[in-house]
Amino acid sequence: MARKLKGIAAARGVAIAPIVHFHTTLDHIPTWKVADGAVDAEKARLQGAVDTVARNLVQLQHELAGSLGKHDVRIYDAQLAILHDQTFQRDVGNEVEQHRVNLEVALQRVIARYEGVFAAMENPAMRERAADLRDIGRQLVGALVATERQKYTANGSDYLFAADEFLPSDAGLLDRAHIRGIVTAHGGKYSHGAILARSLGIPAVVGIDQIMLESSTGAQAIVDGDAGIVILDPSAEDLADYEQRLREQRAVDRRIAEVRFQPSVTPDGVAVGLFANAEGVRDLDGLEVDVIAGIGLFRTEFAFMERRQFPSENEQVVMYRRAMEGAKGKPVTFRTLDVGGDKPLGYFRMPEERNPVLGWRGIRLCLDWPDILYTQMRAILRASALGHARILLPMVTTRSEVVRCREVLDQLKADLKATGVPFDPEIELGVMVEVPVLVPVLPDVLPIADFVSVGTNDLVQYLLAIDRDNQRVAKMYDPFHPGVLRVLQQIAVAANTAGKSASICGEIAGDHWFTPILVGLGYRELSMAPVFLPRVKLMLRSFTLAECEGLAARALAMSSTGAVRRLVQEEIQPRWSQKLVTGVEEVR
């Protein structure tokens, strides 16, 4: 029976192959008591191990240089820095001297202490650096016991690498001709292992705690690196769906080269801005800014969550300026701090709430703590001097909330102007439509807002009264519900009537089956995870505006989710398949 496990999407792409378990730690660590007269000789063994591991790392760095970007190759520089760190070496030597343990045991103890320090850090990126320490310790012990690590192969067959974690030194042991995907029990999106998987183009899902217990070597599995899902023992239907996705992805990859720098327009020339979502400045590193309209959603809360205390105004300015520079003159939409619910701050005490998703979060929290809002808005204003910035307010419920934020923004602009601090005088203030009650009052809000962005993830969840993370009801969560489509139309009509731009920045923006319907409903801006941009552009260039409007009108008139999905299957999917096969398009 098929089992679906949810983890963290670490590297995009889909892979289908048998799982192979790999145990990445050494099977046996020797232990003995060091005699008083042998302490210096035991400590001296460390330098030989350091030299061996350093040579191996440099060799691995050269081997992967052609496959990795310059930035990612530096991961091994970070490991070399740990290896040669004098404090680290001294601590290991002291462990031998004080406790008379052999060097292998001393290394394990010191690494464990260091890991404890990293594990206590609030910054997730710093916590993930503990993996580099484990990797260095493993390599040093391997050098000391003269154990040559075995390649991660499946006897020449395609395979999915499954392990407790994927560490930087593991990259040199992969059978890259046959590995199809990576799935691990531990790790995060920004761990060095995840970064390397992305650079090597290997689909990866990390953070599935039970993967080694739930799966077995030789069992067929699917790794969905786009959605962060692993399907064990997939059904025939699952396999057919994902095999179609693989064929489609190969066709999309071929077509991407053809339309990569082509405009994002319908065949009859209607432009639709395709924007990228970003969780922080690191997401901009590998982004092809030349092929997007800008950053449609910059989630500022992730930078707050990575710190041990609230970032100062100057610290925020540095971050927002990096985002503006990374966008190369294109607009950046900064969503103000949206914590609470499932995104708590470790250093900010939140009240216990029975239903935090419906509680003190987003703009509600910031208006109750105005210093947070003032500091962030002022920092965004200062950074806006480098280009065009937009400020987006999350979880707006009433017009009065927008009025108060507009007053804060106007006062800050006046203060900066009076002190000669440069900023973009045309900076825009927008509202995020997530709370359903905001929809009928949008005509009252839009005169004091410059744009609208629809956060469909929460909006659909609230409209359907369905918790997407509750396995009992998650299958009922479906944005193709006719009621959802009618609400989306109502938002677009209100914005277009007021002459304000309306964008979609939730998951459905990146769902290419939705693209013609969203265009037909009146949306001219879509913001999504960068991985979905090519498919959406190809779909956009497949339907004229009249065809999009016809599809939207028919979907709006339907009485069930099933009927809308049949419309997609019968009208949209065949055109998509034909376009991928023929590659013929005429843009007038």
Structure description:
With 588 residues, the protein is of the alpha/beta class. The protein folds into three domains: 3-25 and 150-234, 3-Layer(bba) Sandwich (Glucose Oxidase, domain 1); 36-144, Enzyme I, Chain A, domain 2 (Orthogonal Bundle); 267-582, TIM Barrel. The chain has 22 helices and 16 strands. It has helices spanning 39-64, 70-73, 75-83, 86-99, 103-119, 124-128, 130-144, 192-200, 211-214, 236-259, 301-305, 313-326, 362-368, 370-383, 399-418, 442-445, 456-464, 482-497, 515-521, 533-540, 545-556, 561-582; strands at 3-6, 8-11, 14-21, 159-163, 179-184, 204-206, 220-224, 229-232, 273-278, 295-299, 332-335, 389-393, 428-433, 451-454, 501-504, 525-528. It is globular and about 85 Å long.
SSE layout and pairing:
Blueprint lengths: L2 E4 L1 E4 L2 E8 L17 H26 L5 H4 L1 H9 L2 H14 L3 H17 L4 H5 L1 H15 L14 E5 L15 E6 L7 H9 L3 E3 L4 H4 L5 E5 L4 E4 L3 H24 L13 E6 L16 E5 L1 H5 L7 H14 L5 E4 L26 H7 L1 H14 L5 E5 L5 H20 L9 E6 L8 H4 L5 E4 L1 H9 L17 H16 L3 E4 L10 H7 L3 E4 L4 H8 L4 H12 L4 H22 L6
Helix pairs in contact: 1-3, 1-4, 1-7, 3-7, 4-5, 5-7, 10-20, 12-14, 14-15, 19-21, 21-22
